[in-house]
Amino acid sequence: MRRFAAFLVGVMLCCTGAHAQHVSGNAWELGPFERPAHSGPVITPNPASVFLDPIRNEPVHWEALHAFNPAAIVRDGKIDVLYRAEDDTGAMKIGGHTSRLGLAVSTDGIHFTRNPAPVFFPARDSQMQLEWPGGTEDPRIVETADGMYVLTYTQWNGKIWRVGIATSRDLIHWTKYGPIFADVPGGKYDHLAYKSAGIVTRLAGGKLVAAKIHNKYWMYWGEVKIRLATSSDLIHWTPVEDTHGNAVVVLARRSGHFDSAFPEMGPPPLLTENGILVIYNGKNDAKDGDPSLGPGAYSDGQALFSTQDPTKLIARTDQPFFKPEMPFEKTGQYSAGTTFAEGLVFYKGKWFLYYGCADSMVGVAISADRNPALHSE
Q1: Domain boundaries, the chain
Q2: What pLDDT does residue 96 have?
């Protein structure tokens, strides 16, 4: 792995993408995306939902305050969305409540029926000390060729956050494996705070499934700086490092742009004939950001990486392809506004992009453009 990483570093472009083509509206992009007619949030908080918490051993209103930051998958001819729900315990501030993952199912991608209880949550298990009291947050999900679902999510114990991994066959019963970098020799990444991880996918039989490139699975991960990791089994991951042993940065901030504060990974990336398409969330800096966006606003960009060398940035959008515009995207616990994309599916001939609205609700944007350059099997 180290020899392969060194080879990649030797041929890659500058890690910040300084030599990449910065463009907008090109054929390699996915979209355009539009909100449905009479647009509003598709999932909102529900104070009536009650769940017997296995740690507190008492009923809690598990989605009373916020329901946001969704993952999405096509399953049994429907769209299943896993969303982060915050209860009404803890401090009244961002990150001050316990988060759990709810499940909602739709036949049209817009109207959802919810599971009455969360399907993924902190419990008295091997991961409790990493997930309590903060919870399980911000999911991304992919499917394997044999129908296994692989979940990446944030483990938050109120002190440090990490990307955890879990698997399921039915989205109800889960096996947790702990932090994705737990097996890196010497515990090198044990004290690193990191989150937001998307496993590269391909379109196969109308579904997005985990894709192998050079006989490995690839994951783009990180907030502030986006990096790469590889795996042979989707459970145990190794960061791609340079010759000095540092995790290679493939996407970083740009002054004057929508991602001037930092970029953060969006939904699982997509393998196309043009390269690896990465949708990411950009935070606008208050001082040297895009003046057309509010300070601290999160909007969405796209970047294209080489399939031959997944560290190599080929192109990157200068302008966001989607941004906070509607009141429900600017009203909530993060009033600066967010369209924080985490879920992407291809369903009934259209692309559905699911996103968090102001850290409070779930929205959707839809594109009928399949993109003829999509890598499909």
Answers
A1: 2-367
A2: 86
Q: What is the rounded end-to-end Cα distance, in angstroms, of the chain?
A: 28
What is the C-alpha separation between 86 and 67, in angstroms, rounded?
A: 7
User: Looking at residue 369, what is its pLDDT?
Assistant: 67
One-letter amino acid of 353: L
Listed as own residue / partner, the contacts of 12-18 with beta carbons closer than 8 Å and 24 or more positions apart are 12/248, 12/309, 12/311, 12/312, 13/311, 13/312, 13/313, 15/248, 15/249, 15/250, 15/252, 15/311, 16/249, 16/251, 16/252, 17/250, 17/251, 17/252, 17/303, 17/313, 17/316
Q: What band does 216 get if pLDDT is binned at 50, 70 and 90?
A: very high
Q: What string of DSSP letters covers 68-99? A: EEEEEEEETTEEEEEEEEE-S-S-SSTT-S-E
Domain 2-367 architecture: 5 Propeller (2.115)
Phi, psi of 178, rounded to the nearest 5 degrees? 90, -170
Q: Compute the mean pLDDT over every residue in the chain, rounded to the nearest whole number.
A: 92
Neighbours of 364 (CB within 10 A): 24
